[in-house]
Design goal:
Oligomer: single chain
Strand content: 5-15%
Structural class: mainly alpha
Radius of gyration: 17 Å
Strand order of the largest sheet: 1-2
Shape: globular
Distance between the termini: 33 Å
Order of helices and strands: HHEEHHHEHHEHH
Length: 198
């Protein structure tokens, strides 16, 4: 099936058209606050480990130390960038990725290929579904979780995905956008613990 003809792809195209005025406004604000480029592109690991270019609005400046290395994220993110991240507005360009078939609305967040490779068998299992705009880990604490906790939630989603779980994640995503991140226990400890090693 052509990527854009998938139900998720068609919905992404519709939302992109509907949100076009907001996307244009955010693009102008990013240009004014951060300069060019407006969009941040980075290779991430997708379905089956296939790499793709994830697209987001920029939220950080390109600040480097005397050796040319990037400064820590906390020193590079701007107040406007924090606003974008707080309300997940920096993620909106990923509708393009969904339309292309690289991502879905719900699934584990796309990670760097080397991060997936370091997970071994868990990384392979995690890649059985398309990465998502939002996911179980993101509505269960996200930045408040450890890497292992995020992986537990990601694997739980892969093993137990359903229309009901997707609906719960969408509802919680809206709550997170409005109320901020909070740790939520979805009984992820019932899932088989992540593998150790490869």
């Amino acid at each position: 099936m052509t990527a854009c003809l998938r139900p998720a792809g068609l919905l992404a195209i519709g939302l992109f058209a509907l949100l076009a005025p907001l996307l244009l406004l955010l693009s102008l604000l990013v240009l004014l606050c951060l300069g060019r480029p407006v969009l941040f592109r980075q290779v991430r690991s997708g379905l089956g480990g296939r790499p793709f270019a994830m697209i987001k609005f920029r939220s950080m400046r390109d600040l480097r130390d005397s050796d040319g290395a990037l400064l820590p994220d906390a020193r590079r993110v701007t107040a406007f960038g924090q606003f974008l991240r707080r309300f997940r507005l920096d993620e909106l360009p990923e509708l393009i990725n969904i339309a292309r078939g690289d991502m879905d609305f719900i699934g584990p967040r796309p990670l760097l290929p080397h991060s997936i490779a370091a997970m071994g068998r868990d990384g392979v299992e995690r890649g059985r579904v398309r990465p998502g705009l939002t996911g179980l880990a993101q509505v269960s604490g996200n930045t408040l979780l450890t890497i292992e906790e995020k992986l537990r939630f990601d694997l739980r989603y892969v093993r137990h995905r359903s229309a009901r779980l997707d609906a719960q994640i969408i509802a919680r995503t809206l709550l997170v956008v409005v109320g901020g991140e909070k740790r939520i226990d979805w009984h992820a400890d019932e899932a088989r613990p992540p593998h150790r090693g490869s």
